[in-house]
Amino acid sequence: MTNRLAEAKSLYLRKHAENPIDWWPWCDEALATARAQNKPIFLSIGYSSCHWCTVMEGEAFSDIAIADYMNANFLPIKVDREERPDLDSIYMQALQMMSGQGGWPLNIFLSPEDLVPFYAGTYFPVDPRYGRPGFLQVLQALRRYYDTEKAELQQRKALIVESLLTSAVLQDGTITELEDRELLRQGWETSTGVITRNQSGNSFPMIPYTELALRGTRFNFESRYDGKQVCTQRGLDLALGGIYDHVAGGFHRYTVDPTWTVPHFEKMLYDNGQIVEYLGNLWSVGVQEPAFERAIAGTVEWLKREMTAPEGYFYASQDADSFTQPTAVEPEEGAFYVWSYSELQQLLTPEELRELQEEFTVTPNGNFEGRNVLQRRNSGKLSATLEAALSKLFIVRYGVNSESLETFPPACNNQEAKTANWPGRIPSVTDTKMIVAWNSLMISGLAKAAGVFQEPSYLELAARAANFILENQFVDGRFQRLNYQGEPTVLAQSEDYALFIKALLDLHTSNPEHQQWLEKAIAIQDEFNEFLWSVELGGYSNTSSDSSQDLIVRERSYTDNATPSANGIAIANLVRLALLTDNLDYLDLAELGLKAFQSVMHRAPQACPSLFTALDWYRNSTLIRSTTEQINSLIPKFLPASVFAITSDLPEGSVGLVCQGLKCLAPAESVEHLLQQVQKSQNRG
Fold it and tell me: For the residues 451-458, what does the mean pLDDT come to?
C-alpha cells in the first residue's frame, strides 16, 4: 500500500511512498486540509543522499504505532530540500534558533493557520536513545502542548517570527573608498583562517572560503596566515585525501575526521563542480601539482561516465550507501568504495601491493570498519605500477576496464540496484534529477578547467549542459529550477539564476569569441531583476515575487554553506555584466546589493565569503580588450577580477587596452606591459 508520494517525481519523496504515514507533498491542498482539520503540520525536510534521512525513513517513519498517532493528530508533509531550498532555508533557520544547531533530516512542527514553527529537531529515534526521546513520546507531548498551552504557543511563535523577520531585514551600509579595502582584508583573513587545517572534527571542502582566500593572495595583505600555503594545503587535502575517489574519480561530500581520510561517501554534483574550479584556479596561480591535474581529469571521467544524462545535463548526486549483495536488506555505507586487505592481496601483484601500501593508507587492519579507504601519503605523479593497480580495482568495482566503459547506467532506486545484473559491485543509487544551480556549478568548473588546461573536451561537456538548460528550462517564458526526465518544473530560485548566469559568463570567458553565452546571460539577468530583485531592501530574494505566497518570510540568501550564496554570486555577475556591456545600470544594482549586506559583512565576515568576492569584483574590476590570439594566451592565467572582450580596433602599435570601471589606461605596447597593467588594475587602492 503506497501513499501520495508514490506519484512524486522526487527520488527522495518516492523513498517514503511505502511508509504507513499518510504523507502529503507541500501544496495548497495539504495546507488547507491542515487548517480545516485544525491539525498541526509535521514538516519533514531532507534529501535523497542524506544518510540519517534514510535511517529515519526505515525506522520511525516505518513504525505502525508512530504512523497511526501521526495520521490521527498531525498533517504530515514531506519536502525535498533540493526541490524547495526556500522552504528549507526558512525552517532550518528556525531550527537553529530553537536548538542552536542544524542538520538533516529537518523535522519541524508548524501551526496550520500561519505556518509558523513551534518545535523542531533533526533525527528522532523510535525508542529513547542517544540522549534523544522516542519519536512517539515527542508527538504525544507536542499534541498536548498544541491543544492546552495556547497562550504560551502564541508567545513562542511570535518570538520566532520576530527573529526570522529581523534576520531577513538587514541594516544597510555605506561603501566608502576608505574602508572597503580594510573590509576586504578582514574578509580575506577570516576565510583564510576558516580553511586553515583544523585539529579535530569533520573536514568539509568549503570552497566559497577557499576561493576568496586564493583570490586574496594577490593583495599581499599583512596577516598571521601564509595565504598561498593555506590554499595549496587545501588543494592537497582534496586531491590526495580519502575525500577523492582515487580509483574512479569524483569527490565525496566530506570526511569525518580532521585528516581528510574517511569520507561520508555520497558524491554531490555541487561539490565536484566547485572543487574542479578551485583546483583549476590553483593550477593557474602556479601551483602545478600533478595530483590536481589527475583529480580534475578523473572527476571529469566520472562525470561523463556516471553523471551525464544522454541529453547532456548532469545528475544531482550518488548515495553514500550501497548493497553488498542482492539479498541484503539494507545498504552499507561506503560498500562500493572500500577495500579489505585480503581482497587487495588477491587482486594485486606483490610489487603493486607494496607500492600501494607505500603511497596510500593501506594496512591489514584498515582505516574504516576493518577495510581501507584509499588516501595518498605523498603528492606528485603516481607511478605506472600504481596506476595499473588502481585500474585493477576499477575493474573489480565496475566489472570492466575504464577505457572501454564510456557510460555506466545509473541505479535510479534501491530496487534497480538490487535486481540489475551488475558486472562488478552493486553501485550506489543515483538521483538523476537535473538541478539548474548544481549543473551551473559544474559548468563553471569545466569552463575553468578547459581554459587552464586548454582542453576542448571539457568545454564541449560544459556547453552541452548549458544548451540543455537554455533549450529546456523555460515554461511560458519563465525559468525553471528542475528537470525530471525531460519535464521542467518548479520556478527557478535565486541560486539558479545567479549560478547559471555565472556559468554563462564563465563559458564566455573561456571562449569569448562566442557572444551567444553573453547574450543569454543578459536575457536571464533581465528576468532575475524583474521577479527577484528586492526594491525595498536591495539584493535578490530567494523566490520570485509571484510565487512566495506560502512563505512566512521572503528571505535573501547572503550566507555561504556547501554552495555559495546567491547574492554574493549575483552581485559579482552584475559587475562582470557592467564591464562587458557598458551598461552602468548593472553597476548601480551591484552597489545597492553590497550596501544591503554590508552590515553583515562587518558583523559576521565568517558567514559570507562570496559577498567579499563580490566586493573584490566591485573594487578591482578590470576589462581587457585585445585580439583573439592575445586573449587566448591570457585565459589560462589567474586573473580573478578580469573579463575579456575581443576587438580588432586597437590603437596602432598596441597589443591591448586595460579598462578599470569607468576609465581606460594607456594602450599597452607589449604583452609584458599589458600584464603589468592588469595586475596593477586588479589590486587598486
Answer: 97
**Helix, strand, coil percentages for the chain (3-state, nearest 5):** 50, 15, 35
Supply 85's cell numbers: 531550498
Q: Residues 264-283: what's their mean pLDDT?
A: 97
Q: Give the count of alpha carbons within 13 A of 387, CB side only.
A: 8
For the four alpha carbons of 231, 104, 473 and 319, in that order, the dihedral sign comes to positive
Residue 287: CB atoms within 10 Å: 18
Of 407, 195, 376, 441, whose CA–CA distance to 302 is shortest? 407
- Which ranges of 102-248 would DSSP assign to H, the alpha helix? 135-148, 150-168, 180-195, 207-215, 227-240
* pLDDT tens, residue by residue, 417-443: 999 999 999 999 999 999 999 999 999
Neighbours of 190 (CB within 10 A): 19
Instruction: Round to whole Å and give the CA distance between 379 and 556.
Output: 41
Cα distance between residue 532 and residue 544, in whole Å: 5
Strands across the sheet containing 317-318: 267-268, 317-318, 430-431
> What average pLDDT does the structure give for the chain?
93
For residues 660 and 662, give the distance between their C-alpha atoms in angstroms, rounded to a whole number. 6
Longest CA span, the chain: 84
Grade residue 178 by pLDDT with cuts at 50, 70 and 90. Answer: very low
What is the C-alpha separation between 615 and 605, in angstroms, rounded? 12
Quick one: pLDDT band at residue 577, thresholds 50, 70, 90?
very high
Provide the 10 A C-beta neighbour count for residue 522. Answer: 16
Share of the chain above pLDDT 70, in %: 98
Residue type present at position 515? Q
pLDDT over 80 at 548, yes or no: no
Give the other-Cβ count within 10 Å of 119's Cβ: 21
Give 163's pLDDT tier (boundaries 50, 70, 90).
Answer: confident
For residue 62, give the C-alpha cell: 516505518
CA dihedral 588, 590, 596, 600 (to 10 degrees): -150
- With contact defined as beta carbons under 8 Å apart, do 539 and 556 qualify? yes
Question: Which ranges of 373-512 does DSSP label H, i.e. alpha helix?
Answer: 384-398, 414-419, 436-453, 456-472, 494-510
In the chain the first and final C-alpha atoms are separated, in Å, by 67
pLDDT tens string 290-330: 999 999 999 999 999 999 999 999 999 999 999 999 999 88
Alpha-carbon separation of residue 360 from 203, 244, 352, 356, 662 (angstroms) = 19, 12, 11, 5, 53
Locus of grid cell 495539504: 30
Q: What are the grid coordinates assigned to 556, written together?
A: 535573501
What percent of the chain has a predicted confidence (pLDDT) above 90?
83
Decide if 607 contacts 600 (C-beta within 8 A).
Answer: yes
Could you please report the per-residue DSSP string of 37-93? Answer: HT--EEEEEE-TT-HHHHHHHHTGGG-HHHHHHHHHH-EEEEEETTT-HHHHHHHHH
Q: Mapping DSSP to helix (H, G, I), strand (E, B) and coil, where does residue 455 land? A: coil
The least confident of 124-133, 520-529, 586-595 is: 124-133
Q: Which three cell numbers stand for residue 175?
A: 561603501
Rounded-to-integer distance, Cα 244 and Cα 618, Å: 35
Burial call 256-274: b when 16+ CB within 10 Å, e when fewer: ebebbbbbbbbbbbbbbbb
Crossing angle, helix 269-285 and helix 207-215, to 10 degrees? Answer: 20
Q: What is the DSSP code (8-state) at residue 319?
A: -
φ/ψ region of 434 (left if φ > 0, alpha if ψ in -120 to 50, else beta) reads beta
Question: Amino acid identity, residue 403?
Answer: E
Nearest-angstrom CA–CA distance, 54 and 59: 9
- The size of the chain, in residues, is 685
